[in-house]
Amino acid sequence: MNIIVCIKQVPETTEVRINPETNTLIREGVKSMINPFDMYAIEEGIRLKENLGGKTTVITMGPPQAESALRDAIAMGIDEAILLSDRAFAGSDTWATSYTLAKAIEKIKDFDLVICGKQASDGDTAQVGPGIASHLNLPQVTYVKKIEEIKEKTCRVQRMTEEGYEIIQAPLPALLTVVKEINTPRLPSLRGMMRAKQAKVLHWMTKDLDLNSEFIGLNGSPTQVVKIFTPPQRPSGKMLQGEPQEIAEKLVEIIKPELH
Amino acid sequence: MPIGIIIEKCTGCTLCIKVCPFDAIRIMDKKAVLDLDKCNLCGACVPACKFKAILLEKEEAKTKVNVSDYKGVWVFAEQKKGKVQPVAYELIAKARDLAATLGTEVAAVLLGDRLEEEIQELIWRGADKVYVVEKRELANFQDEPYTHILVELIKKYKPEIVLCGATSIGRSLISRVAVQIRAGLTADCTGLDIDPQKKILLQTRPAFGGNIMATIISPDYRPQMATVRHKVFAESVSDMKRKGKIIRENFDNALLASHTQLLDIIDEIEATVNMAEADIIVSGGRGMQAPENFKLIKDLAQVLGAAVGSSRAAVDSGWMPYSHQVGQTGRTVSPKIYIACGISGQIQHLVGMQSSKIIIAINKDPDAPIFKVANYGVVGDLFQILPLLTRKFQEVLKK
Known about the structure:
The complex is a heterodimer. Chain A is about 30% helix and about 30% strand. By secondary structure, chain A is α/β, with parallel strands linked by helices. The mean pLDDT of chain A is about 90. By secondary structure, chain B is an alpha/beta fold. Chain B has 3 domains: about 5-55, Alpha-Beta Plaits; about 65-255, HUPs (Rossmann fold, 3-Layer(aba) Sandwich); about 275-399, Rossmann fold, CATH 3.40.50.1220. Chain B is built from 12 helices and 22 strands. The longest helix of chain B is centred in the first third of the chain and has 17 residues, at about 85-100. At the A-B interface, helix 3, helix 4, strand 9, strand 10 and strand 11 of A face helix 5, helix 6, strand 11, strand 13 and strand 14 of B.
């Protein structure tokens, strides 16, 4: 089973904060990491390969420094890594990003499964996974919380919904986006870390892919940002004092008007 | 490069540096200098510069769509088990505002099987038109047939705006559709407005875990597509006097085919009230101390008709199923009232619930970060307070 895992390098959101005095972003010391949801995608890919054989390939699009995210994935046990990095990709929205990733997957050609995290923690759009499937005309299942069964030509998975879950059967190749419940990602082994240091990461640029230049980067993106601003601050809260009885009464007064 | 600093205009005031999310601008010799390896061309610096010293030039699309051909505001009316989901009525309410500003009409798109009453309700709720496709194959959502049909409808009728709930269905479907149509799509909008001059949709959404808001446009492409989370807008009210037009569409069976097959739908018992649609969520964390204590949370939730939420800590300890987890790696919710019990309020939790209207926090640690976002804080013992609260509501609500 050949598996492609798409990942994104994101800032550690816990550290992207607003300085309330100057109302600006605090970026000092912001480290990068693999998008948390992609960790589950990587882990699932590695597990499937361990059980079924084959090869795992991790792929990311980003600035040159995104290579470190790929090496982290190799350290966990991914076999091969591809970095899509080119100035021409800068400014891509989810349409252009999913197009570029889809073209890279097309070039890899020999795959049974594409796995993505359900969304990235910085953009939160959940659009790139289905977008890739749409470009490649692949069947997709989003929000997968369990792979019940996987065979050569088909898989049966549980898809999380608001009320519970659905059981869906999909032919392969297919694209899955996964949620946290699917597994617990492993820590990299010492051997993995050694391998990650030495592993060769393929670097693909526009010239390496069969791209329509109208569909990439800033110019190929249907959407554009016109304004960025800080959200209104939450009003400062009120602490309720008193005996438990009094507090419960106060809370009833607060909650009651909102009930119908 | 499409971005550049006009040196003559730059005063070195550093305003651009403060808004750059990628740390890509420095001041050298009192002028701004771009680090192109870091710049992501996001454009945040352009409106921030008071001296118009930053130029970001986006080329016009070569294959242009004729924007004036596209009219009307559409709402994808998501249905489950034959019932239109409340988020559709929330979107219709907003669509009516947008359509009024644009001088156009609101249409709902309803795909499913045997939906007669729901069609009428969509009209009563504010749809001027309802496009209906009823087929057995469409009874339950499946990515491929729903995508094919929505794409065909959009191509045929050319709406200028398409809105869709940011639900597990909506987010899967609309991303596929936007790619097929080559339309701009903005996820999880919290604000939608019309630019009064350009008559385009201004889509505002949180980014970076809610720490920044971004306004996004898609001026050269149609339709302009956006998803919106539950509870961002209030539902439109049903008015039985409203009239509307029903347009039934029939499609070739080939468009109804699906590679994936839905084998079963399982509703989990604990999710009696769906968190996404709940007006109130009572949520418990590590401070609940043991799985059996979640009964206190569930009892209160039941009296209030609320959903039960949980922090990651409680899920990771195996006290609650993952489907109840609120936060960065769980669900994002914005109910009217969020009651956090024994939840310390790590940033990963806060990003999932800080857009709630009223946040009530009960925690024994006065320094817990949850109190920073809470409208009402209680430093105290939840094992005393929760049962009292449940009992009081039982009394109050009986009357």
